[in-house]
DNA sequence: GATGAATGAGTCTTCATTCAT
DNA sequence: TATGAATGAAGACTCATTCAT
């Protein structure tokens, strides 16, 4: 196996990019390691200098996607917004991040089940942490008195919002030709908030 | 190919049952036709008397699941409930149906993407029709003045409800150990309705 | 896997014959499963209907050779010969059997080390049993008073005789162009016996 | 390719040592060049500065083992022993040398067949020369009248003795847990000589 | 002289599908 | 109708060897 850490990083990025492209087109199982190597720009031998098995690629892909989503989301959440708008803003931010990484997210949604058990657990953990980011924003709104929700409702709302973000990709056939991302964001935010605002 | 229609039906049901069991355990791609034949109780030769290719099995499975969900849901929706409760009732019914067919729904969620294009279109069409069932219930509430929603909101709400039903299965790792189906139903219904009721 | 036991036996015999031919020529590791299939007269797919892995073939080969050697030897040992001649006869019989199965024995000598652990143990056990056959003949001569040997000497003599039989194959480059099997048998018998006869 | 002869010698010795260790553990074919390089303490690139192909390593190993055995044996044979004892002594010396280089000898026994033809011939030549060393000792005993043997018997006896020495390694599973090297030496010497001494 | 990243031919093995019985 | 033996294309992965630095 190759030693140069920088090279490893570079090559793996090449692989991940190639893999996402191919997984989108044909799914994980129908994509061959040779195809990934070719799309990555190197030989099958070289591919295996950087991974141990085909499943490793799927893992790298999932891991990288989470990191990207997470990083981008955190970057956006830093903005200083107050009150109920902080939640509005968070939802919009999340939706936008997912929209930007649409293909990647879709791949992860469809293929992560093929991960070996241990890796799957790890990936689910990341999904959990992402949900918590949203949960915290909601919690803050509740704490500050802008929303009135039970703990269970907070927890479930966070999951709902995340799934609604993912929905934008995995149900694109039903949604994306109906409205733009901005419209979608507004509709979902309204549906969600109108019921939660104190009356 | 076999001609006796009754036999065809019987054999296909055997296959579908076997396939669902196996797809749940190992996914479509990791399940072999031989395994399906064995689990079905007949030989690989016989299997191919009733299907043309492995993908046909996946199609049969998906088709059958939709029919079951659809049929069960329609049965439940027949109940005569009035006003906003009709929607409450519809949500509960949907959630219950999905819960009953949990494994099947999960398989469809995870594997339908492997369907050949034509078959996928057909299956999505069924998903559409299912959404319309919910949409109609919402629409009725709006028409009758129990809810105030734009057309887009109606459309999106129907999708949301359906996805929330599916969520109960594909996010079970995060939800099913938190609350029972009844609790889940109540939480989701509250979150949804409290915002939609006229104030 | 194929069910018809008779067919399994037949196919495996084909495989074993093909494998011995090839292993002799190029050794186990340099022989591919495809070559074995081809030489056996069927496709690679069919080959794997009758074995689980390449190592299985080696095991089948070794097992079969032992059975052949053993069977042939036992057949020959049945002859009714008395006194010290029973030993002379046994040695000659053993040498002849090994000579008949020269290639097979050589393969086993050179390749059995590549057997997976468990299989190796099993094969060594068979080698042991074969040695015991010789040991018994010697023992009988001692018991009857034709030879005077300690237990250790009996044990070691049996091993020596067996190795001398194998030697005829694995040292053929030094021996077989010097004398015929009959001559070899006589020389070895003399060298061995002349020292053991009571003086 | 490197030119410094001293360095070549040093590097090759490192390689041989590493290779023997690994060949013992896993055999020639299952050992990779990378592993040999690593165990040798240098890179795969460096390895190929000192050899042309993997087979070269096997050749170096075999050649080196013969040289060691041969050298050690000759050293021991120098002792001044007279009469039949010279043969006793030679046998003991040979057995001891082989015992000292047990692993190496075993490797050679099991793997030399994988040598390319030309190299194999060369190695067999060395084996021949080694046999001749023993042959000479026996011949001397015959010439001096201590033993009475035909030429063929002399030739074969030398081979027998050598194979008995090797047997100590390749049949260790049956012998080494029965008696010590000294006991083994005594048994074999007795079995051999008692028949050859003039009566 | 030493390094180690890159290569790709070659290997074992799987599995959907066919077809004679 | 049912069976299951036969097929071979295709896939994951290995490893001896090269060569630019």
Oligomer classification: homotetramer
Strand fraction of chain A: under 5%
State the total count of DSSP E strands of chain A: 0
CATH superfamily of the largest domain in chain A: Tetracycline Repressor, domain 2
Report the span from N to C terminus of chain A. Answer: 63 Å
Overall shape of chain A: it is elongated
Structural class by SSE content of chain A: mainly alpha
The tally of helices of chain A reads 10
Largest sheet of chain A: none
Give a structural overview:
4 copies of one chain form a homotetramer. Chain A is mostly helical. Chain A has 2 domains: 1-52, Arc Repressor Mutant, subunit A; 55-196, Tetracycline Repressor, domain 2. Chain A has 10 helices and no strands. In chain A, helix 2 packs across helix 3 (44-50), helix 4 runs antiparallel to helix 5 and helix 5 runs antiparallel to helix 10. The first copy, chain A, starts with a helix and ends in a 6-residue tail after the last helix. The interface between A and B is large, with 38 and 38 residues. The structure holds a DNA duplex (21 and 21 nucleotides). Chains A, B, C, D: Keywords: DNA-binding, Repressor. Chains A, B, C, D: Residues 32-51 bind DNA.
């Amino acid at each position: 196996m190759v030693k140069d850490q920088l090279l490893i990083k570079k090559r793996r990025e090449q692989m991940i990019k190639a893999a996402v492209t191919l997984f989108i087109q044909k799914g994980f199982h129908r994509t061959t390691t040779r195809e990934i190597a070719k799309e990555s720009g190197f030989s099958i031998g070289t591919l295996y200098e950087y991974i141990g098995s085909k499943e490793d690629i799927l893992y790298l892909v999932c891991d990288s996607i989470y990191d990207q989503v997470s990083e981008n989301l955190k970057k956006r959440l830093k903005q200083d917004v107050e009150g109920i708008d902080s939640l509005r803003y968070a939802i919009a931010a999340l939706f936008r991040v997912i929209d930007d990484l649409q293909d990647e997210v879709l791949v992860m949604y469809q293929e992560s089940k093929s991960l070996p058990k241990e890796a799957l657990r790890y990936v689910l953990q990341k999904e959990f942490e992402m949900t918590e980011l949203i949960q915290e924003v909601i919690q803050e709104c509740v704490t500050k008195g802008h929303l009135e929700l039970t703990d269970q409702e907070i927890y479930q709302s966070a999951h709902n919002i995340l799934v609604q973000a993912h929905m934008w990709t995995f149900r694109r056939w039903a949604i994306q030709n109906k409205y733009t991302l901005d419209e979608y964001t507004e509709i979902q935010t309204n549906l969600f908030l109108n019921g939660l605002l104190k009356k």
